[in-house]
Design a protein that fits this description.
The complex is a heterodimer of chains A (about 190) and B (about 450).
Chain A lengths: L1 E9 L6 H4 L19 H4 L21 E4 L11 H9 L3 E4 L4 H8 L4 E4 L2 H13 L4 E5 L4 E4 L5 E3 L4 H9 L3 H6 L2 H9 L4
Parallel strand pairs in A: 1-2, 2-3, 3-4
Antiparallel strand pairs in A: 1-5, 5-6, 6-7
Chain B lengths: L5 H7 L2 E4 L5 E4 L2 E4 L5 H10 L9 E4 L16 H17 L2 E3 L9 H7 L8 E4 L13 E4 L2 H10 L1 E4 L3 E8 L8 H12 L7 E6 L1 H4 L3 H9 L8 E3 L4 H7 L8 H11 L12 E6 L6 E3 L7 E3 L10 H10 L14 E4 L7 H11 L9 E4 L4 H9 L2 H8 L2 E2 L20 E4 L14 E4 L2 H10 L11
Parallel strand pairs in B: 3-4, 3-6, 4-5, 6-7, 9-10, 9-12, 10-11, 15-16, 15-18, 16-17, 18-19
Antiparallel strand pairs in B: 1-2, 2-8, 13-14
Bound molecules: iron/sulfur cluster.
Chain lengths: ~190, ~450
């Protein structure tokens, strides 16, 4: 599974889930429509007009890869954050560090979190900033992320089980339900 | 036998099986749900035709999106009302215990479950809410999950997880006057940073935690997530057993004694090794306040904001409209919020009332007191604290998450500062453009009385 795309550089550290999707948009009871409000309070000014300074609103940047600063996705467990990013059209988020819950939520929604070194991240940010047409390639099978037509490339880690799930579109629920007998046996002999 | 930690003991006893080169299947004893992160999970199961596996191990409440005024009347906001109705329907359909709005046990999920005895030592608990870490105060493994995982637990009472690494934070010594559990945890996070705990489960140890009440321990464990840790734990002891005893859902009589005998085996073995360990002196801790837009940006109230040359730091100060190097003492404050799953238990209101008694709220301040549950609310009235608050001009509201995340009408206006006992000072967390300063209930009460931040350490003798 390989993705080739230009990327959007969000050069901010500690992007928390309240920024990704503010609480006032959490009232929906389905998973749709969150993409419209991703980074809402950065994308729009107080008067409701688009903030032309914010990176998502700059026409020169586009693509299905979001490259973000260190410690992305900290804060609340709201999966709405992952739905919002996926809803906007991103397939991969790159950062030098992800918060635990966000990472799990992303993987459960087909959004690949790619954790890279700080050095690689800063090189990547620079390349994209100086040339918005920079194309990245993310190869899930080989677990590599690289800038096409350059020597900038790095290996990334992903849990082997999660990788199989991502590639085959499996889901944890199927796996768990298939193990119901084991679970019932466990319940019968609980030691605590 | 090898030396094991409290976390190891509880985790290992819940492993159903281990996938080769992959995660483990972890059994979940108790699943707490609320209106915001459960509807999509219910829908998913329904769409796939999967029944809820163990409905009697689920407890539901409505808290995030509920009004804190006129709870006896229909909820005005249509979307909120729909979320609440959907929760009620889903629970009814699936035979799940629900303490809905107005019920005598209704409250913030992390306040309600411990006070009902749902939370017990040695169990595993999850909720679609990151502050589920609160329940670790009892020596339980408790952590927040996303909605896909809520659906997994619905379907199987299990989760697929990789065992986190272990971290221990030790605080020993004697806490100074006016230093509350909230200050202890804000201090720890200010020293370790907001991602020091990522990938870890944290145990808090040392005499400071041993001497704390259960409510104080909950305040500490609550904010484990603010240093990135999935959860925090404190070894169960007599304080824990005493607290659990006699509560609605706690085991009774002989069954309780048997449990206690088991719970006593849980504390970390002498000599067990942690992947990471930190030590702090209680004497070094002072009342704390935050000055930035993440909970790690905290200082002692008597200190000045540090000077750092980093774009994220500067962006954060610009949002707060603070200068590097300045002190927060004497900053005028117009909003004070005492509430949230961090500090909305009876002890928090006692501390506040103690300070407020005989004083008046400053005219410029709007002060909201939001109890964590109906039971806390009832206790506030019973103990006469409400009279103290009323006389001082504070507004006691009805239970819920309220201004902690501002999903309902309790929002701090654009540009205003709020000294808040909640747990997150993110941009806009308490309302679009609002500026949050995290503090203890004592600092919050003092701010409300003075109309500005004061050096509380000078007012305590
Ligand atoms: S009080 Fe705040 S932190 Fe606690 S559960 Fe409610 S919204 Fe979350």
């Amino acid at each position: 599974m390989t993705l080739r795309s230009t990327a959007i550089p969000l050069n901010i550290e500690n992007v928390d889930t309240d920024q990704i999707i503010p609480a006032r948009f959490l009232k929906a009871t389905d998973k749709k429509g969150f993409g419209d409000n991703v980074f809402r309070d950065w994308r729009y000014n107080k008067d409701g007009k688009e903030n032309s300074e914010f990176i998502l609103n700059k026409p020169e940047y586009s693509g299905s890869i979001l490259v973000a600063g260190n410690n992305f996705g900290c804060g609340s467990s709201r999966e709405h954050a992952a739905w919002a990013i996926v809803g906007y059209g991103f397939k991969v988020v790159v950062s030098s560090f992800f918060a635990d819950i966000f990472k799990g939520n992303a993987l459960n929604n087909g959004l690949l979190p790619v954790q890279v070194s700080e050095r690689f991240l800063s090189d990547l940010m620079q390349r994209i900033a100086s040339n918005p047409q920079t194309v990245l390639e993310v190869d899930l099978q080989k677990q590599t992320i690289s800038v096409v037509n350059s020597d900038l490339s790095e290996h990334f880690e992903i849990d082997a089980y999660k990788k199989t799930c991502m590639i085959n579109g499996y889901d944890d629920i199927d796996y768990l339900i298939n193990n119901k007998e084991l679970i019932e046996a466990f319940e019968a002999q609980k030691i605590y | 036998m090898s030396k094991r930690t409290l976390f190891d003991k509880v985790w290992d006893s819940h492993v159903v099986s281990t996938i080769e080169n992959g995660p483990q299947i972890l059994y979940i004893d108790k699943h707490l749900i609320h209106e915001v992160t459960s509807p999509q999970a219910f829908n998913e199961l329904e769409d796939r035709g999967i029944p809820i596996f163990r409905p009697d191990q689920i407890v539901a409440t409505a808290d995030h999106n509920t009004p804190t005024l006129n709870q006896d009347q229909p909820v005005k906001d249509a979307l909120s009302r729909k979320q609440l109705e959907q929760l009620s329907e889903n629970c009814q359909k699936n035979n799940i215990t629900l303490f809905e709005l107005g019920h005598e046990y209704n409250g913030i999920v992390h306040v309600m479950a411990p006070e009902l005895g749902v939370t017990q030592p040695g169990i595993t608990m999850v909720c679609g809410d990151s502050h589920t870490s609160t329940h670790g105060a009892f020596g339980a493994i408790a952590f927040g999950i996303g909605t896909s995982q809520v659906a997994q637990v619905f379907a199987s009472q299990c989760l697929l997880l990789t065992k986190p690494k272990s971290l221990r934070v030790n605080v020993n010594g004697k806490l100074q006057k006016g230093v509350l559990p909230k200050d202890v945890i804000l201090y720890i996070i200010s020293k370790l940073g907001t991602n020091s705990g990522t990938g870890y489960f944290c145990e808090y140890a040392g005499n400071v935690f041993e001497d704390m009440s259960m409510e104080g321990r909950m305040t500490v464990c609550n904010m484990s997530i603010e240093m990135g840790a999935r959860g925090g734990m404190i070894a169960p002891d007599e304080t824990t057993f005493e607290y659990v005893k006699g509560r609605e859902f706690a085991p009774k009589g002989e069954a309780f004694e048997e449990k206690v005998a088991y719970w006593k085996t849980l504390p970390t073995d002498e000599g067990a090794v942690f992947d990471k360990e930190y030590h702090f002196n209680a004497e070094d801790i002072e009342p704390m306040v935050t000055y930035g837009t993440n909970p790690g940006m905290g200082i002692k109230i008597s200190e000045t904001i540090p000077v750092e040359d980093n774009p994220s730091f500067k962006k954060s100060l610009a949002y707060m409209n603070f200068e590097a190097g300045e002190s927060l003492i004497n900053k005028p404050i117009n909003f004070v919020f005492i509430g949230s799953c961090t500090n909305s238990r009876i002890e928090d209101f006692r501390v506040a009332a103690d300070f407020i008694k005989g004083k008046k709220k400053a005219d410029n301040v709007t002060a909201w007191l939001v109890p964590g549950s109906k039971q806390v609310e009832a206790q506030i009235i019973e103990e006469g604290l409400k009279t103290v608050f009323d006389e001082a001009g504070f507004e006691l509201r009805q239970p819920g998450c309220s201004a902690c995340l501002a999903m309902n009408d309790d929002k701090i206006p654009q540009g205003e500062y709020c000294v808040s006992t909640s747990n997150r000072n993110f941009e806009g967390r308490q309302g679009q453009g609002s500026r949050t300063i995290l503090a203890s209930p004592l600092v919050a009460a003092a701010t409300a009385v003075e109309g500005k931040i004061i050096d509380i350490t000078k007012h305590l003798n």
